Amino acid sequence: MIVRRGRSQAAELLTNTAREVRSGVQLLAQLLGLPEAEREALREELLTLEGNAMNLHFNVMTHMRSVFLTPLPRQDIYSLSQQLNRTMEHVVAAGDFLISRNHLKLSPQSSEQVETLTRQVDLTIGALSRLDDFDQLEDFWIQMQRLAKQANRTHREWIISTDGAFQPNIALQQTQVAEALLSAVEAQRTVAITAGSIIVRES
Fold this sequence. Notes:
Blueprint: H1 9-33, H2 43-66, H3 74-100, H4 109-128, H5 134-161, H6 168-202
């Protein structure tokens, strides 16, 4: 059975998970601006954020087993929580690449991708805090599609920019960071796709 009145604990847990993801993306932005020698100090903070997101995912699962009424079908809540955690995994992977490769000089597109991902996560936080507002969810879905398309264009530009690298391993390292960030963007788009399916099914 589905209930749409008030702010549910499930929505609160999902929103808190999205906030942990945003903290992870903010840490990525910080890493991009730090000298290579100072990046290692942030590794533990990055892993802590990943652990926090996973614990919230576990809490979502426990909550769904213990309540009769949920703001959305249980499979939608699970999907949203899972994709938020997938986003965090990709954010952590990008951070690991940046921390582990002290001499990696990233293309300007890296900052563009982190900015796009930040905008996505901010939209996600707003959407999850108002799951019962279908007009807001539809706007969220539209904006996330646009941001994902923009991110895919930036990704192609980034990969093309590495074509002139003198050392193949440098191009590979750039590509690995680029792929991790694009995967985070796509995981966020999947959150929006789930929102879209909710609108179609529940309207």
